[in-house]
Amino acid sequence: MVKIVFVSHDGSDRTELDVKAGGSVMEAAVANNIDGIVADCGGSMVCGTCHAFVSSEWFAKLPEQSEMEICLLEFVPEPQDNGRLCCQLEVSEAIDGIVLQLPAQQR
Amino acid sequence: MTTPIADHIPEHVPQDIVFSYDYHGDPRVTSDVHSSLQSIQNDAPPIFYTPKNGGHWVVSRFDEIKKVVEDYEVFSAKEMQIPRIENPPFFIPLNVDPPNNIPYRQALMPAFSPKSIKILEEKVRHWAATIIDDALAKGDGVDFVREVASVYPVSIFMELMGMPMDRLWEFRNLSEAFFSTNDQEKIHQLSGQIIMTMTEILEEKKANPSDDLMSHILNIKVKGEPISLGEMQNMCFLLFLGGMDTVANVTGYAFRHLSNMPELQKRLSENSADISKFTDEAIRMFGVISNPRIVAKDSNVFGINFKKDDMVLCLLPISGRDDRKNKNAHIFDIDRAKEDSNTLTFSSGPHMCIGSFLARSEIRILVEEWFKRVRKYEVVPGTELGFRMGFSLALTHLPLNFETV
Ligand code: HEM
Ligand code: FES
């Protein structure tokens, strides 16, 4: 099992998920009703409403972003350098324990 | 007149999932279009084959629709006519499957992103206020569809594209004529005029670029190469088609529904913060676009055999009313829980509406400005409400009586 932690925007809410490897972090979040993940396009990488922020350590460890992901993250309501689209992150041992900070709003 | 199209059921379709439905105008559909469609959703299998309009599949429930619109390898967006025709219209990026749609989508995305739409908000609010003031000045009986819902998105579209506002009336008239006719000849002629107008403006932008969507479209590069004028015209026309009638009709249905809910009117006029919840709920309940797909290869999906070139129609406007997905799906409730607020009004998958952030803001802002001026309103008693069906649902008029603040 892979541990994924979601922290709400203001830090007041913290949800730990234990999920099976496979599928995307977005899918895991949606299946578990994580409030701050909207995922309008269902993982087709055209909406940007599944973004979250990670620490710089995690950011460095994650696989590289595609051009489209970079572009989408640049135009979310409040862009930050350490954003990722959850639909582009695969649930695997490599991200065990990752902490994802949710944005104030997805759209 | 066109000749009627013969009913057809191909051999690979099992009898038990045949169910008759005519998307052009079904005898069961009344002016309460969404409720009628919802009762069809309840009576029919989630995926059925209708012999009407040459025969095609219909997908009516949330989970099944979501799968179809996301699975572009089986259900392609490259053709969208039911029944199929020779040389079907082709729009960019609407009829381009991944990965070739991505560069276009990427080029358009910045202008439609939440960040850019926030910046546009003040202009949207200005138009909402002006248009509502002009309409209210006409007094009781004013046709909300004609005076507000259908003109509002035209102004916003022009602002977004960067079209000169001194051409507002010309463009409004073109748009009104275009969306209110069914005459193919006329549609063809008006399309030409609309594209020509936008081309003139594109040419002007080429000489004097600024920070707007049209200037941006002029600079789009795909694989390092600039796109052709034809492609630019094509995208501009798709944006025109996608951004007017859609907003107008969702807004129209939302206002019509709210006219029967005096308590909610009171709540919205006293708590403007609730208007974004109202917008979301209206979008869930009153989708207007159904999307067609063509089966790209023989496949078995949902335990059903689909054959290459079968046409499939997804009933997005009732996706949010699926009681298997949302509790009390038929009830308009702005306080519903997030897990019961699912909808595919803007579709999902690679072609999910690029204008969805804009559309949501447009509707929210219009309602906000409305309740700054109107205390309560009703549909003029005795009004017979007209509607149109097809790939898009429309209401033809909505005369209102109102009390101002
Ligand atoms: C409430 C209003 C709206 C509704 C209900 C709506 C609905 C939709 C739907 C269902 C699709 C997907 C079509 C398909 O997959 O076949 C779509 C796509 C699209 N919409 Fe909207 N739309 C709205 C507003 C807008 C606005 C305001 C614009 C732009 C000004 C716009 C531009 C587009 C474009 C360009 C596409 C094609 C995207 C692509 O293929 O990648 N729409 N819309
Ligand atoms: S779900 Fe749309 S970009 Fe991730």
Describe the protein's topology.
The complex is a heterodimer of chains A (107) and B (405).
Chain A: E1 2-7, E2 14-19, H1 25-31, E3 51-53, H2 56-61, H3 67-74, E4 83-85, E5 98-101
Chain B: H1 33-43, E1 47-50, E2 56-59, H2 62-70, E3 75-76, H3 102-112, H4 114-136, E4 142-143, H5 144-149, H6 152-161, H7 168-179, H8 184-207, H9 213-218, E5 221-222, E6 225-226, H10 229-243, H11 245-259, H12 262-270, H13 275-285, E7 291-295, E8 299-301, E9 304-306, E10 311-314, H14 356-373, E11 374-379, E12 387-388, E13 394-395, E14 399-404
Parallel strand pairs in B: 2-10
Antiparallel strand pairs in B: 1-2, 3-7, 4-14, 5-6, 7-10, 8-9, 11-14, 12-13
Helix pairs in contact in B: 4-6, 4-14, 7-8, 8-10, 11-13, 13-14
Bound molecules: protoporphyrin IX containing FE (HEM) and FE2/S2 (inorganic) cluster.
Please outline what is shown here.
The complex is a heterodimer of chains A (107) and B (405). Chain A has 107 residues and is of the alpha+beta class.
Report on the structure:
The complex is a heterodimer of chains A (107) and B (405). Chain A has helices spanning 25-31, 56-61, 67-74; strands at 2-7, 14-19, 51-53, 83-85, 98-101. Chain A is α+β, with helices and mostly antiparallel strands and 107 residues long. In chain A, the strands form two sheets. A three-stranded mixed sheet of chain A has the order 2-1-5, with helices on one face. Chain A has a two-stranded antiparallel sheet with strand order 3-4. The longest helix of chain A is centred in the middle third of the chain and has 8 residues, at 67-74. The mean pLDDT of chain A is 95. By secondary structure, chain B is of the alpha+beta class. Chain B has a single domain, classed as Cytochrome P450 (Cytochrome p450), CATH 1.10.630. A five-stranded mixed sheet of chain B has the order 1-2-10-7-3, covered by helices on one side. In chain B, strand 12 (387-388) and strand 13 form a beta hairpin. In chain B, helix 4 (114-136) packs parallel to helix 14 and helix 8 packs across helix 10. The relative contact order of chain B is 0.17. The A-B interface holds A 33, 35, 40-44, 46-48, 67-68, 71-72, 74-77, 79, 105-107 and B 66, 70, 98, 102, 105-106, 109-110, 113-116, 118, 338-339, 346, 348-352, 354, 356-357, 360. The structure holds protoporphyrin IX containing FE and FE2/S2 (inorganic) cluster.
